[in-house]
Structures are given as structure tokens and as C-alpha cells.
Amino acid sequence: MRVRDLPFSFQLGLAVSLGFIVAAVPASGSAEFSIAATNVTMPTSGNGSTQYTVTGIPITGTLNVSCQYSGPATEANLPTCTYGPVHAPEPVNAGQTVAGTILFYPYGAAIPAGQQRKDHGPSTALAFAGALLLGLGFRRRCRSSQLSMVLALASMAGTMGLSACGGAMNVTTPRTYQYTLQAADAGTLNNLSAGASTNITVTVP
Q: Is this prediction's pTM over 0.90?
């Protein structure tokens, strides 16, 4: 039986079904939206890194890349990745390929400003010292004994801040950990979004 001899409603349903199938099949030669990254081995001292590549970006808009530990629950001292919880959005075009590097820092290590977090220990100590100066009514013509006491307290505050920083420096637990890298692409002119992810291992010898 030829298709044109079938009832009109059946022909219409068949046409709609074929339309959905064609729309779901990617265009010939287009890459699938995905993210790939290299495994990491942390050196005995210093930082490790992974190089990632995002391909087949499907939507013109903004791309976010994130990194987080995704292994089983643990109390181990984990390395810290700089794209946790998320890297600053990057404008992209459909079909574009984006490459980048994610650094891994030892547990407790200070991460440079703009990477992930800031270490507020020294600034807190300085603020505390400033409060002491104000509280004691520091003036130009203060007595030498008062000045000595203020300087001693400020020095103690600075030492407390440095001690707090030093106390946070713990050794990363030697082990192989699993981390997940995610790429999220959101359109600028609509609510469409797409995501891709991959797992890597981070080995601490």
C-alpha cells in the first residue's frame, strides 16, 4: 500500500514523527557537546594541573566550567581545584571549541586571589590591631609606656594571624581521588541550556 493511499490522519502523524527524528539527529560533521580532561598527579611539593577541552558547544551564549570532588565520602585532606565551585562565565559561539587549565593546590595551601578564595588571616590580624589602637585612644602625644603596650598588643595580634595561617597548612592525604569537571552552556537569547561532564583522577603520591 502506498503512503498516499493511507488515511490523512495517519499521513500527518507519520510526517510529524519523521520531523522529530530528523531534528534529533545531529547535523553531519557536527561534534557532540562534551568535555575531556587529563588526569592529574600532584608533585611531592607544589601544584598539579589538568588540561580540559570543551567541544561541540551547541548554543551561542556563556560557558561555565566547574570542578569538584566526586568520590566517596571521606575525611581525608583533599586537594583543592581552582574551578570550584565554578569558573567565571566565558562568552562562546555555537560550534566553538574551548580549552583551558585547572590548577590543583595541596590541602590548606593559600590560593591566589581571583582563583578561588582569599586567605584573610593577616588582614584579620591587622584589623584587630587597628581596633586595639582605637580602643586605647592612640594619640600623637601618648606616653611612651602606652605606646609600648599598643605595639606589643599589635605584634601579638599579628603573631596570632600568622599562627592561624600556619595551622591551616596540613599535608594532603596520599591517595587517588575522583573529581568531576562539568561544562554548562546557556543561551543568551533564550532559556536553552546544555551540559556535559567528565571524571578525572587526581593522584597524591
A: no
